[in-house]
Amino acid sequence: MSAGAQENFPTGGAGVASPRVAHGPLGRILGGGGDDGGRRRPFGGIKNVFFLLLLTGISILALYPFVWLISASLKPQGDVFDNRLIPQEWQWNYTGDPTPVPGDEKLFALPDTPVLSWMFNSVWIGLLAALLVAMSSAVVAFAFAYFRFPGRNALFALILATMMLPGAVTMIPVYLIWNEISLLTGETGRLAFLPDIGVNTQYPLWVPNLFGSAFYIFLMRQFFLGIPRDLFEAARIDGDGYFSMFRRIALPLAKPALIVVFIFELQAKWFDLMTPLIYLRDSALYTLPLGLKTILDAQGAGGGGEGRWEIIMAGTVVTVLPMVILFAIFQRYFIEGIATQGRKG
Fold first, then answer.
1. pLDDT, tens digit (0-9, with 9 covering 90-100), for 116-146
2. Which residues pair with 11 in a beta bridge?
3. Angle at which helices 309-344 and 115-146 cross, to 10°
4. What domains, with CATH codes, occur in the chain?
């Protein structure tokens, strides 16, 4: 048993290990005791059962839509909305083309619908955007946390004030900027020697992340403020520069916060529909949410299609499932980062 594990399991007489229960309401619920000298209260078991039933009910409410979605994606067209979690008749709606007759293609076989290309676009744009915003926000946050300079608090408050601006306020000005850039880098523009940048390119989807995010800067700054300043002063005595301290001390200790920022931004970019809808025209450049909207417009009854909701549900599963897997893999770091920020708050 490691030293940390032994510390959490102190001996309780005659060498018998007794687990340590946290203080407070949670400790009293889990330990079955209270402030009455550890005596077990008569309603402790009933309270535990109540909380267990409550958590079970909340879990069912949270999981039911996703289970229903997976079930609906494996049903034929006429059974999609029958509300059975176990399909009465199974049908694979993801790959293949059962007949040569047009109109019965599955999700990845739909004509003029490069779903795999859309997935690839979402993956590389999401990863690049999340990496850029995590590193740029960390650099700015470290500067606000470590350096002392006049006007630091006012400048930080100004950055936080940008969070109060709704996205709809800056949407049109930002579009006009990118449209002007596309004119400058076009074939007849003054910067025609540069690659096409602007409207109908994927640059607007990730380049703004180079400049950080106010929320992530705030999150990372609070984490860096919790690092003992003596570590940085000792590094300065050893001859480390500011960038070396950031790379060797701040970043390794801030790994939970960096992972939280990375997951937040990756999820935001993965499900972002508005930005690709504004800037992209070529279907080959689409991301998965915009591609899913295209499928909905083509296959849904509201868009003039045949109401092939099983295909739409299959596309929704393909869109949602990667984020579920991502959270399952990194949930330990995610919870650790959120808990750390909560303790510092």
1. 999 999 999 999 999 999 999 999 999 999 9
2. 17
3. 10
4. 22-100 (no CATH), 108-344 (1.10.3720.10)
